[in-house]
Amino acid sequence: MKYGIDIGHNCNPDIGARGIRQEDHLTMEVGTRVISKLKSLGHQVINCKPSRASSVGNSLQQRCNIANFNRVDVFVSIHFNSFNRQANGTEIFTGSDTGRRIAQPVLDNIVKLGFFNRGVKSGLHLYVVKNTNMPAILVECCFCDAQQDMNRYNPDSLSDAIVRGLTGQTAPNPDEAEKKTILELQKALNRLKIRDDNSKPLVEDGIIGNATRSATRNFQRLVGITENGMAGPTTWQAIEQILAKPVLRANHAAGTTVKYLQHQLKVVVDGVYGVVTATAVQVFQRQEGLTADGIVGPKTWDKLFS
Ligand SMILES: [Zn+2]
């Protein structure tokens, strides 16, 4: 079989939903694993995600073109839903009876992981379902803005479920997919200027070692989460909260992002944006040639990051 695997979004300006975790991050974690597992089972795989796009429409069109040009047998688009933080579970969209026969076992396997079954649905309104020449399914794995789904989320078990649903086979977990996540972690910690125990930036090699573990621990200590040196969902959630560059104002902000801000400004880290922090922000903004308004917006965040 020749599979066209479409890792949803991850192609600016085609960006996924932002929830507790970012859809872009989740589709990448699951999609890279699905691709390597299918390959390890001896299937042909075409990665249908374009590397650049001029618009969202262009991104979607390229995904279909890649699948059509390569004449894949089945097109599988991987996404995560977001709605109102309460809605949860798994649904799969498709446009034909053949598509339904492919979608059903994939859905069944994901639901076995504990996700709520929202069913196989008509996806004729979806661009990639409509514009691919072969049976296509679009998997909404679960909701990236629902806490209960994110607690259950595990890229290894999800990719196993998708592969098992598509092929009836189970692949061993390859190291390659694991490497990706560690590389992303190293890049994120470097961007946040979080150093290892020798105060050095991390080497971005995708390999977990003492330096990456110690930098992860340093970050965890800073934001007040369990220091285990391993980047689980809570750690990623904190990293992504900061990298989302939320607007912070005095007396209106608290928590993880403020702790990080205070650490960078070298003031007491208490997680509360009060007068002392506001003054330090203004001093920093003046130093960096920004408007010294004491409000941390995107420009101030960019100066705080590397
Ligand atoms: Zn999506």
TrEMBL record:
Please spell out the taxonomic lineage of the organism that makes this protein: Bacteria, Bacillati, Cyanobacteriota, Cyanophyceae, Coleofasciculales
Which segments constitute the MurNAc-LAA domain? 64-167
Position of the signal peptide: none
Cross-referenced InterPro entries, in alphabetical order?
Bact_Sporulation_Assoc (IPR051922), MurNAc-LAA_cat (IPR002508), Peptidoglycan-bd-like (IPR002477), PGBD-like_sf (IPR036365), PGBDSf (IPR036366)
* Pfam families recorded: Amidase_3, PG_binding_1
The superkingdom of the source organism is Bacteria
Q: Name one GO molecular function term.
A: N-acetylmuramoyl-L-alanine amidase activity
Enumerate the Gene Ontology biological process terms: peptidoglycan catabolic process
Query: Protein name, please?
Result: N-acetylmuramoyl-L-alanine amidase
